Known about the structure:
This protein is an alpha/beta fold. It has helices at 16-30, 51-55, 66-76, 81-85, 114-117, 124-140, 149-159, 202-215, 233-239, 256-264, 280-287, 300-304, 316-328, 330-344, 349-375; strands at 2-6, 35-41, 58-62, 90-92, 105-109, 143-146, 166-168, 189-193, 222-225, 248-252, 266-271, 292-295, 309-311.
Amino acid sequence: MRILVDYRPALRERTGVGEYIHQLVRAYAAGGEDEVAVFTSSWRDRPPPGLAAELSARVVDRRVPVRVLNYAWHRLEWPPVEALAGPVDVVHSAHPLLIPARGAARVITIHDLFFLAEPERTRAEIRRDYVPLAAAHARRADAVVTSTEHGKRLVADRLAVPLDRIYVCAPGAPAWDQLGQPQVPAGRDILFLGTLEPRKNIGVLLDAYETLLERWPGTPRLVIAGRATPDAAGWLQRMARAPLAGRVTYLGYVSQRRREELYAGARMLVLPSLDEGFGLPVLEAMSAGIPVVVSNRGSLPEVAGGAGTLVAPDDAAGLSAAIERLATDDAMAFERARAGLARAREFTWPRAAATLRQAYVDAVARRRERDARTASGGAR
């Protein structure tokens, strides 16, 4: 099969969705069964020179502004992807909306439905397009890829997609050079890693940390790493004022190469999100031997399994207590680190790639069956 995957979320900064697509394509192409290409488009950003070799995939790069192409694809359903990338058998969108195609089977990716649950907390383009279009696009897709069983249930229940068209391709755990040993975490930092956007619940994290500072002068520093969206302005201002100034370190976006350094300096990862499609930093931290404190919402309980400390995302006092316990109790930190390592070993990229191939094979079969019905005059 000829496979084309939308690589645009990974083009500039490989945050959660971008890293997922990058590693999924890499694992899939390593199987060598199909001809794989990735599609990028931007007016100014170009894929790195070594991308094709790194992915073992052909790179199709077009100098078309992302917003222009998204509007044309989402609202006009034009141009067909074959006009930009040549003939393909499967075109895989990295987000919940279909990419127009003349004859290719169409696959979409849905990690979560936060954009439907709380549209006011999403970016303008997502509110404009995802909210009104996602349900219809999901039902028209030849296959839907998601990363958790929680996501699969949401897509089936909220968007009325048959379960046999939804495929769970959970990401694989990363390999570290130095980390990943069953020991008490050597670092001291309280680490948050992720894009600073409303659903990450940074305000409650700062509330919990401020409470901890009031009762424990020896509280370790809080390190926050991730790209700041416009919604983060208030949080950044708060970090620069007392009592958080000098106690909270904001690093901005950090590349994949720097993450091992951050985990090496961490006592724990804290992710109190209101919702997560997967929560890749949780898997990264567990695979590094770092305990995790996560909210009990979205996919986070499923990903952490029994290895994580779960806290309600609106419970700042409970979050503060959970952080203090892990910071001061070596026996508990060791037990949670060991459990996290065991949990992380259950996630592998080859397993995700095998499920993805089944999704593609089934999608092509569904597209051909639909085309045959159309050709014979049957119902579409």
